[in-house]
Sequence to fold (231 residues):
Amino acid sequence: MRNVATGAEAGADRSFCSTQRETSVIARRLSPTSPITAIAYEPGAQIDALLGGLVDTLKSNGARIAGFVQINIERTAHTRCDMMLEELSSGARIAISESRGPHARGCRLDMAELARATALATAALDSQPDLLVINKFGKTEAAGRGFRCVMATAIERGIPVLTAVPVVNVDAWQAFAGDYAVMLAMDDLPKDAAVLCKVLGFCQRSSTKSADSMEIGCQAQPQPQVEAIGT
Fold:
């Protein structure tokens, strides 16, 4: 299975941005085994610290990284922490949580700031980074929005992608990525960032082969049945 969310699977009445283009093969520092590497994690797992350590190791080795890691800021007056994204190519920080008071429930995501982050990440791809890191394939991406199109653009340009997927979103992720992605369980990975870098193929100088072609839906659409990705 090579197409992702094709018309036959998703239905003719869907409305979403999609592209299917031949991608290039670009000489890069990194050589992951798949165009997209996804790390599945359970609730409460320290995935942000894992990605942050991996990014720091890659940068220390001279890799050029675009995308985001998430920084969680604890607030004593709030029942949940504030969420901030750090844009990796510039170091800019974007607060993506919307302040709704200490007892607010429901989604706290600031969609305007998320859109700004999406634009920054897309623009950063023009510099042809070695890797795009997306902090999370969250419920916004599972619903067809968020950073989906940024990931699709990166793959079209031959830029490898690394992201994290909450276990609750694994089905939506598989429908999105198909066999363009390898999925690994966080619990099975080494905690040492340098070792993890090597395990994922992110500390090697080589040529990364891009996907042959890719069709990605970037707005909400029915989720088709797909083959499971091995963990």
DSSP finds seven helices and eleven strands in the chain. Confidence is low (pLDDT under 50) at residues 1-27, 206-214, 216-231. The longest helix spans residues 47-60.
